[in-house]
Amino acid sequence: MAMVKGKICITLHVNFLFRLTLEPVMSTLSLSQVKQIRALHSKKYRDKHNAFLVEGRKSIEEFVKEGWRCLQYVVQDSSQPIDGFPGEVHFTDHKTMKSISALSSASDHLAVFQRKQSGMNASSRIWVALDQLQDPGNLGTIIRTMDWFGCHHLVLSEGCVDVFNPKVVQASMGSLSRVSVRQQTRKEWKDLFDGRHIFFADLEGLSFTSPGLTNQLSSPLGLHPLVLVMGNEGNGIHPSTRASVDYTSITIPRGASQKSKAESLNAAMATGIMLAHFSSMRDSGKADSH
């Protein structure tokens, strides 16, 4: 029996080989661990160590619940760890927590998770592909929006922001734990998207709610499998992407008022509007799978 952080930790020894700890193992964060965590602010080291940061109690809970392997869990000493955490918990002070956080406002909870390979489910009716999207907040919001509408397959072209960038992870609010993300070059898109209708979001295009498009997507088996492709925030979809696949351009019509002067919609907002429409078609009985 030992006193750890003001709590009684009881360890049962079974046949001298196994032990069952009724409280999480708790320890202080070391300087070498601080250095290792801070290195993960950089994509270079996230790739090297195949790991990434998750900040915030709720987001960490989501990744744990979805079965991602947690390598380190750090809690500020004024906070309580998440309930039932299965591994070791490291405590540190506010100053150190601020130094290891990749965000402007540090959370009381930070974890290092191991990355894992994502597969693409061919039976899923709606995929989203992003072409050189570079804003981490937009990417994280798109992932969160996809999760809301039950669309769990995302393809990223070369030139996109790293999906494990801490700002992307933060903006996804835990939804990244449920969305499969695959990095594919544009040259590979033609084969990857074979058998799917490919829709490019454009300022000039067919209204995404037009009867003609609705008829094109409907079939006796439900909603035709599709890919919604969103482009770069400033430049749209790259010319080489347009040359690599057969596609239909679609757009969100402006309001009827002549006062509508906005140049374009935010990429994440436009994605959400289109997904709301396509997922309603999928879920209205016109499709049997998402």
How is this structure best described in words?
The longest helix is centred in the last third of the chain and has 20 residues, at 267-286. The protein has ten helices and 17 strands. It has helices at 31-39, 43-49, 57-65, 94-100, 136-148, 166-172, 186-192, 211-217, 239-244, 267-286, and strands at residues 2-4, 7-9, 11-14, 18-21, 26-28, 51-55, 70-76, 89-92, 109-114, 126-130, 153-156, 180-183, 197-207, 218-219, 222-223, 226-230, 248-251. It has two domains: 2-114, Ribosomal protein L30/S12 (60s Ribosomal Protein L30, Chain: A, 2-Layer Sandwich); 126-286, 3-Layer(aba) Sandwich (Alpha/beta knot).
Draw up the topology in text.
Layout: E1 2-4, E2 7-9, E3 11-14, E4 18-21, E5 26-28, H1 31-39, H2 43-49, E6 51-55, H3 57-65, E7 70-76, E8 89-92, H4 94-100, E9 109-114, E10 126-130, H5 136-148, E11 153-156, H6 166-172, E12 180-183, H7 186-192, E13 197-207, H8 211-217, E14 218-219, E15 222-223, E16 226-230, H9 239-244, E17 248-251, H10 267-286
Parallel strand pairs: 5-8, 7-8, 10-11, 10-16, 11-12, 13-16, 13-17
Antiparallel strand pairs: 1-2, 3-4, 6-9, 7-9, 14-15
Helix pairs in contact: 5-6, 5-10
